[in-house]
Structure of UPF0060 membrane protein:
Amino acid sequence: MDILKTLALFVVTAVAEIVGCYLPYLWLKQGKTAWLLAPAALSLGLFAWLLSLHPTASGRVYAAYGGVYILVAVMWLWAVDGVRPTTADLVGVSVSLMGMVIIMWGDRSAA
């Protein structure tokens, strides 16, 4: 799978996971309707299916996906919750993305 497709799939996967967790949060913490649980369950199902589309070993995919998830979560924090990322947030995102690159596309000769 080429790099841009992989990254796009990671981003879509992260959005599905965040939506699947955010909707129950709205119900539990903000008193929104319990009907939000139905699309939340669908979103989490989509998240699991999207992870299965990656051609590499699942453990490596999950580890690398974590870096993109952190980026998308910080973007969600800003776009949806209205909380501007701090310098520490941006440094953390950068470190996690560097880790993702190392995990996904690093040297495999020792494996």
About this structure: Residues 3-105 form one domain.
